[in-house]
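Help needed: design a sequence for this.
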């Protein structure tokens, strides 16, 4: 596993085309879990060029939490 700074990551350009942005209680639970544990339980998967291929909501949650 390689650790990257969130500022190095870029959302996949087609993510919004295929997936809706979660805005409901599920997203709030994700944020609460990250906030209480201080980490993401499942890693964000990225390409060699730091493009997110799985974990866009986790990425967004971390951004919103600062």
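Sure. Designed sequence:
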């Amino acid at each position: 596993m390689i650790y990257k700074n969130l500022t190095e990551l870029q959302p996949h350009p087609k993510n919004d085309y295929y997936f809706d942005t979660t805005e409901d209680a599920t997203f709030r639970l994700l944020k609460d879990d990250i906030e209480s544990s201080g980490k993401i339980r499942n890693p964000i998967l990225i390409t060699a060029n730091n493009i997110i291929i799985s974990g866009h909501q986790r990425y967004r949650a971390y951004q919103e939490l600062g």
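The chain has three helices and two strands.
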